[in-house]
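Researcher: Go.
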Amino acid sequence: MNLLIILFFLVPLFYYRIRGISWEVVKEELLIHNKDLKTELIGGVKLFGLLLIGFFIIALALSLFQGVTGIEINDMNKVDSIISEEINTDLVNFIIVLAIGLFAEEFFFRAFLVKKTGPYISTIIFSIFHIGYGSISEIIGVFFLGLILAFWFTKHKSIVQNYIGHVLYDIVAILLYVFI
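Model: Structure:
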């Protein structure tokens, strides 16, 4: 996981530098676009709310699918066991990796890949990177929530808003996994 986080930062930087683009342009291309803190916080909280609504819609759709077909696709217990084990092993490391990892995801998948491949392809790649949990419902959820993140970034051009919304969403999701 730590190597992947490093690669999520290095790949975009090398991509731009190999093309001869200055660090100043790279910074403008990949980071903050001069919005005030209040705008960034409000945008991040709005995105979080949208992600929560998306989560509930996805959960409802998966439950309805399961009820109609009888096919059990709610396999989030796989995600729960992995997260619980990581938290129990080293909580401080888990929090640090989560904070840095989420920023790396937003940096790579939204600030870089959305601009290079568009929201759909970047979201498909984002979903593929979450296959490690071995959960069908996780992949479905990551895909649809990834689309929300990609389109939000496309509209607002703010990695900060995406980061805030993503962090808040993951904190709530982790608390739900661990305590419910």
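Model: The longest helix spans residues 37-69.
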